Amino acid sequence: MARVIDVVSHPNVMPDELTYREPQGGNGDFRMGSRVVVQESQIAVFARQGQMLDELQPGTHSLNTGNVPLLAGVIGMFTSGNTPFTAEVYYVNKKDMPQIGWGTNPPIIMYTPNVGVGFQLLMTNGIIDIGIEEAGRFLKNYGVGRPILRLDDIKDRIQTMLLSTLGVLLSKQKIDNIQSANAMLGDLEAGSLTLLNEQFVEIGMRIKAFRAKPFQARPATPEEVMTYGNMQTYQTIAGLDIAKTAAGNQGIGGAAASAGVGFGVGQQLAGMFGNQNNQNNQQQPPPAPAAPAAPAAPQTKEQVQALLDSLDMQLANGQLNQATYDKLSAKWEARLKELGG
């Protein structure tokens, strides 16, 4: 049996450290009466077999059934104080992480009626201050089973959540112009962070401060709409309840509509390229009938599969180029796997 750990502490916390496990190699042997030293701005969380148990606040703690009741209950050690038990201690760093850079990669897509194909791409960058709010919840999401977790390990995840949230806010507030989008950024900088934090609270974190340069915008191409559009985009499209007649139109407009990018995009593209398509149709035999258009906001395995079948047909008919097909196919194949397809 390994040496019983009588005193455990973690005083040397790196600036970008989020969680740290003691012992680093995995389970350690403790006993009732062992001491756990918790520094300021730390929370110590006991775990056993991947299960989050008791939390200890800053201070020096002598383990007993009063301060680790969940652990004591799991190991059945209410009376035998000297019998060793195995567990892990995770030190969670509660200090704020300031000046964390972020940027719109990929860009944020904004619905802009009567501008280009109906969408613009927003680009900006800035910084946030972020920190762990709920130690147990954060550990459950990211720290369990890892000797150490540092900011770079989840920085991409933080950026993805932030950009997703900004896109949702644009949609919920029905923002469709650059001036209103920048006004929203100003509100967030002024401290209106409740909506910005909805996703982060779910993983045990919180954005404490938000800074951003004003948005720069440019019209999106049809391929960019289909590449950068996310589920919020499709829900916005479906909610507009605009006729889906473009889905039956051949060519670029019909391809966009049947790929789930209907309303203004499909109709405007149909108008932009309609004459060219008509000329082509006069010179060429009609293409084979296209597969039925997939729903604008595919939610189920069957709907996603229908969209993929539609993309295959559009590629075969020359309605999509190979690069666009590859991007869309990869995106929705990944979604199908998430749904268990």
Describe the structure.
This protein is 39% helix and 23% strand. The chain is α+β, with helices and mostly antiparallel strands and 341 residues long. The protein folds into 3 domains: 7-93, no CATH class; 97-218, Tetrahydropterin Synthase, Chain A (2-Layer Sandwich); 231-338, no CATH class. The strands form 4 sheets. Strands 2, 3, 5, 6, 8 and 13 form a 6-stranded antiparallel β-sheet that branches. Strand 5 and strand 6 form a beta hairpin. The radius of gyration is 27 Å and the shape is elongated. The relative contact order is 0.10. The model is unreliable at 238-297 (pLDDT under 50).
What keyword list fits this structure?
23% strand; 15 strands; alpha+beta; elongated; 341 residues; three-stranded mixed β-sheet; Tetrahydropterin Synthase, Chain A; 3 domains
